[in-house]
């Protein structure tokens, strides 16, 4: 039984007989997309974990792409009706959109077991454990036999619009060069399963021999890494023409470590 952002008003905090609960089926998975308090934030969905496994994409409260103004949402979407509805309840309705995308991407939407979304963002629950991570949505039940906890809270990030699944990587870049310079470092990954756009790893003072580490959520499951593109820029003309390179780049997949 899959709960798509189960309702908060009149249901949160009530006895198990009244609301969705893990006792309702052999396996209950839940996607929380609008779990901010109803007052004052108008969250429609409940925040407590109530299933065997509970997914909190993007932290479970504010979904990427839902902060747009209503006009741009209506233009972006199929027709005025869906656009208007999405503006009124965009976070709440993301749950069924993630679910429908999960049918098309059986290897997508990996949920990382973590104490909180902040801990997930900091990378303390990376990579997936030896038994793998559950997939949010249609294929969540593949994880049914591996559950060892009463409640399993899982975190992940999604894209702003279709296609929603993202794959998480840890990238570490060691800079080479002769002098420090202000700027940013971008990385693009190429692999047997696809390529990514450029993702910013770091912005600030770049020092030779220092290592800069970042977690990136990319728009393709790239499979085996075949190439990494490194780009740095300082956004202004420097008469000394500084040169920087990458001494080493390490890429770790969240899916299999």
Automatic annotation (TrEMBL):
EC number: 3.1.1.26
Top-level class of the enzyme under EC nomenclature: hydrolase
Domain of life per record: Eukaryota
One Pfam family named in its UniProt record: PLAT
Protein name: Pancreatic lipase-related protein 2
GO biological process, one term: lipid catabolic process
Alphabetical list of SMART domains matching this protein: LH2
GO terms, molecular function: galactolipase activity; lipoprotein lipase activity
Gene it is expressed from: Pnliprp1
Originating organism: Aegotheles bennettii
UniProt similarity note: Belongs to the AB hydrolase superfamily. Lipase family.
Family matches, as InterPro entries: AB_hydrolase_fold, Lipase, PLAT/LH2_dom, PLAT/LH2_dom_sf, TAG_lipase
Gene3D superfamilies: alpha/beta hydrolase, PLAT/LH2 domain
Biochemical pathway: Glycolipid metabolism; Glycerolipid metabolism; triacylglycerol degradation
Catalytic function, reaction form: 1-beta-D-galactosyl-2,3-didodecanoyl-sn-glycerol + H2O = 1-beta-D-galactosyl-dodecanoyl-sn-glycerol + dodecanoate + H(+); 1-(9Z-octadecenoyl)-glycerol + H2O = glycerol + (9Z)-octadecenoate + H(+); 1,2-didecanoylglycerol + H2O = decanoylglycerol + decanoate + H(+); 1,2-dioctanoyl-3-O-[alpha-D-galactosyl-(1->6)-beta-D-galactosyl]-sn-glycerol + H2O = octanoyl-3-O-[alpha-D-galactosyl-(1->6)-beta-D-galactosyl]-sn-glycerol + octanoate + H(+)
């Amino acid at each position: 039984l899959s709960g798509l952002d189960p309702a908060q008003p009149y249901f949160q905090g009530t006895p198990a007989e009244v609301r969705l609960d893990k006792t309702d089926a052999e396996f209950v998975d839940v996607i929380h997309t609008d779990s901010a308090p109803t007052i004052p934030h108008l969250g429609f969905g409940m925040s407590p974990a109530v299933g065997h496994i509970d997914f909190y994409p993007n932290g479970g409260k504010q979904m990427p792409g839902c902060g747009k103004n209503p006009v741009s949402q209506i233009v972006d979407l199929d027709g005025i009706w869906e656009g208007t509805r999405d503006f009124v309840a965009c976070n709440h309705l993301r749950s069924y959109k993630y679910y429908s995308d999960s049918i098309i991407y059986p290897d997508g939407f990996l949920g990382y077991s973590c104490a909180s979304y902040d801990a997930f963002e900091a990378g303390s629950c990376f990579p997936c454990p030896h038994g793998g991570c559950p997939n949010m949505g249609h294929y969540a039940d593949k994880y049914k036999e591996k559950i060892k906890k009463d409640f399993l809270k899982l975190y992940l990030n999604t894209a702003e619009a279709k296609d929603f699944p993202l794959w998480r990587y840890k990238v570490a870049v060691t800079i080479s060069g002769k002098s420090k310079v202000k700027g940013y470092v971008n990385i693009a990954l190429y692999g047997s399963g696809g390529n990514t756009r450029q993702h910013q790893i770091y912005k600030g003072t770049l020092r030779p021999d220092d290592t800069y580490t970042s977690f990136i959520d990319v728009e393709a499951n790239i499979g085996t890494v075949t190439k990494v593109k490194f780009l740095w820029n300082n956004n202004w003309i420097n008469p000394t023409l500084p040169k920087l390179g990458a001494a080493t780049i390490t890429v770790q997949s969240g899916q299999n470590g």
